[in-house]
Structure formats: C-alpha cells, structure tokens
Amino acid sequence: MPFFDTFADAAMPTPSGWWLMRRLNEHHLDRLVELGAKGRFAEIGPGVGPFALVCAERNIPYVAIEANERLGDSIRAMGHEVIAAMIPPIPLPDASVAVLHASHVLEHCATYREALTFLAEAARVVEPGGLVSIAVPDFDHLGNEFYRTHYSHALPMNLRRLTQLMQDNGLTIEHADFLSGPFVAPLRWITQSIAWAAPVWLLRALSLGRLSAAQCYSAKMTFMRAVWVVGRRPRRTTE
Q1: Is the separation of the CB atoms in 63 and 40 below 8 Å?
Q2: Residue 104 in contact with residue 137, Cβ under 8 Å?
Q3: What is the side-by-side order of every strand in the sheet holding 41-44?
Q4: Is 54:22 a contact under the CB 8 Å cutoff?
Q5: How far is it, in rounded angstroms, from Cα 79 to Cα 71?
Q6: How far is residue 234's CA from residue 123's CA, in Å, rounded to a whole number?
C-alpha cells in the first residue's frame, strides 16, 4: 500500500540538512546512552535514516519498522534489519529491545486511543528498565502549520499531553525537553523564533534560488519547536 511516497520522493536532504539531522540524532543517542541504554535499539519510522546511520557508526544493534518500501530499502543498505509494517501493533516480541525510538511518528495516530495503544506496545517491547524515546512537533508552537505539514498529521501533541500519555502507560519520565533542530535552550529560542517568523519565499530568496520551495519548507519545519520525552519501563520487582 502506498504510504509516505510524497515524503520518499522528496526525502533526500541537502548536505547541510544531513549535518543537522546527524547532530540531532547524535544528541538523541548520546542522551539515551547517558540514561543507561545498552543493547538492541528499535526505531519506528526511520525516514531517510539519520538515527540508523548513527547507530551503525557506533556498532549498536538496530532494527527499524518502516511502512514505506523505498525508505526501508535505504535502511537495509546500511546493514540494518527492517520490518515492513504499519503500527500499532509493533511487530516485535515482548521485552526484546533496550530502546524504542520514534521521532515525529506519534502525531500521525488518528486518536488518543490509538496513541495509547502505540505507547502500550512501545512499553511492551522494551525490556524492564528499557527506554521509550518519543519526539513530536509541538502543537503549541506550530499551530495550524501542524496540519499543513502532512495529510496524516492528526493528533496535536505538546509536552504535557505526551508526558501524560507515557505516564498512563506506566513509564517513568527520565527526560523531557524542547528542541529546535539539534539545538536546545538558549540557542533553541533563537532558531525556533526565526523558523516561526520566516516565510518560505524569504528562505528561498536568501538561498538565491538554490533551494526549492519544498526544501525551504522542510528547513522551516526542522527548526520549528519539537518535544522530546524519554520514559523508562519499570524494572521487575521481587517479592
């Protein structure tokens, strides 16, 4: 079934876009390691694969769940396992990974019930003490731009809503922060403000026409504010 072909058609980033994505995903991975992540990582919706690439460079066992065939093939080319599936459910065994990472995926859930199911599945597939890492665009910052970004954007998310969803699935919050591309505060305040205010036509003019309108829009969305929350599945207790 065709899904996300419009993204796959225009997915290849510019060299500067790749640099930004690498920085962001190195930031994600560094923080997850600081939180004690060891073992196999799983990612839902890897896109063009910046997180997969960083995992490959650090020899971290990794598996991706990706519905789009072309995007899945690009992850396989890095030497990773890819499972072709729409989620939920997540096609992994119970307690089979140390980390479940999903960046800009949860907002594609149609309803909060589907989001609860998504996170219940995420908590199921991570081992006790494992981490569920979720990043979403911040609706409080994007406003109606949230719906213009992609036709499948359905569930508005912000820091409070995401934290509540994760806690209701029994996850202990270990990290919660805002991002603008790879930047955190105080630089985030500058980059997110510029991204919010700058129209696409101005970005294209500043690039002297070297970037297409689609590339300029992608750059704008990269720096709009996002929310990143990491929750831990409680370890088993002995009676």
Answers
A1: yes
A2: yes
A3: 81-83, 62-65, 41-44, 97-103, 126-137, 226-232, 172-179
A4: yes
A5: 14
A6: 9
The runs of H, that is alpha helices, within the chain are: 5-9, 15-34, 50-57, 69-76, 112-125, 139-142, 145-149, 159-168, 187-197, 200-206, 213-223
Would residue 116 be called left, alpha or beta, if left means φ above 0 and alpha means ψ between -120 and 50 degrees?
A: alpha
Q: At what angle do helices 213-223 and 187-197 cross, to 10 degrees?
A: 140
pLDDT per position as a tens digit, 36-78: 999 999 999 999 999 999 999 999 999 999 998 889 998 999 9
What is the reported pTM? 0.90
Mean pLDDT of 191-207: 86
Buried b (16+ CB within 10 A) or exposed e, 66-83: bbbeebbebbeebebebb
| Structure-token match 């690439």, residue found | 53
| 133 bridge partner residues | 101, 230
Q: Is it true that the peptide bond before 89 is cis, omega within 30 degrees of 0?
A: yes
CA distance linking residue 34 with residue 212, whole number of Å: 38
User: For residue 109, which amino acid is it?
Assistant: C
Of 140, 154, 114, 118, which Cα lies nearest the Cα of 231? 118
pLDDT (0 to 100) of residue 1? 47
